[in-house]
Amino acid sequence: MNVLVNAVCGTLPDILLYSELFSSPKFSHTGTMKISILGSGTSHGIPVVGCDCPVCRSEDPRDKRMRTSAYIEGENGERALIDAGPEFRLQAVRAGIKRLDGIFLTHAHADHVHGLDDIRPLCRDKPIPVYGNEKTITEMRERFSYVWAETQRGGGKPRLIPIVTDSPGSSGSIKIGGLTFTPIPVKHGILDILGWEVEDGGKSLLYLTDTSAIPGHVQARFGAKDARQPRVIIIGGLRIRPHETHFGFDEALKTALGLGAKTIYLTHICHDHSHAEIEEFCLNFRKQMKLEEIEIHPAHDGLEINL
């Protein structure tokens, strides 16, 4: 496992718990990698509190957007989570999540980590490793400081093992059974955050939420003619209007095409547009760009993608 245990959190209890990770669960072959979109909404969630706009009042279930998160199921039964937002408990119950082998964080904003306490039922028997860059892991430890504090019995705390991935730009990857997770450094405004490439055999997914720019070396890696390009890219596209720290729809789609996507899903969507309106935008984008062989859609909560 080519990762670094965060030196800040390398206490004896952490290290003892970390050793439990190497008693690997028995994975059973299912024959496909599945990605479930647990949430596809921006930080407010949709409907937005106090808002009476048409999207927030919509009866289309695809317009009900919990905070952005994805659940990965590998061919051999591996289970992993990308981000844990405030609705994680509801999302996990709806998706029938019964086990997690790893949690992969993009960054530490509230809408991506504030569901971590609800991991508790899934880590009673074994701690769960949580991966992120150094800033993300440091902020997570500060925000959930009680997890590592000496406290009285009762109440319960999630058993989490914070692990800092290799420094940005490195090729460090994490293996969970047959799944390989590779951190992809991207920009969220001025912040350095992570996207995640997930590979399972010859199948590849690129997950890039809350992104406003892609570093040149990442573009070169995926844009090369001989590159093993991702089949599916799930990318944050906030709205049509520009935003300082998020791609708009047009920027997100053009970026995903430049990274070699064959299928693109927009996520982290605000309440400016209904699902039906975004579908129409994507259809028009495909026609204008003459992309007959490329699939482009808005993601929605509950969407399942099989690779």
Number of domains: 1
DSSP, total strands:
15
Say what the CATH topology is. Answer: Metallo-beta-lactamase, Chain A
Which shape, going by the Cα principal axes?
Answer: globular
Let me know the largest β-sheet: 8 strands, mixed
User: What value does the average pLDDT take?
Assistant: 88
Strand order of the largest sheet: 1-7-6-5-4-3-2-15
Poorly predicted runs: 1-29
Termini separation comes to 25 Å
Overall description:
This protein has helices spanning 12-19, 88-95, 110-113, 134-143, 216-223, 249-258, 275-289, and strands at residues 4-5, 34-39, 69-73, 79-82, 102-104, 128-132, 160-164, 174-176, 179-188, 191-200, 203-208, 232-236, 263-267, 295-298, 304-306. The chain is α/β, with parallel strands linked by helices. It has one domain: Metallo-beta-lactamase, Chain A (4-Layer Sandwich), CATH 3.60.15.10. Helix 2 (88-95) links the parallel strand 4 (79-82) and strand 5. The two termini are 25 Å apart. The model is unreliable at 1-29 (pLDDT under 50).
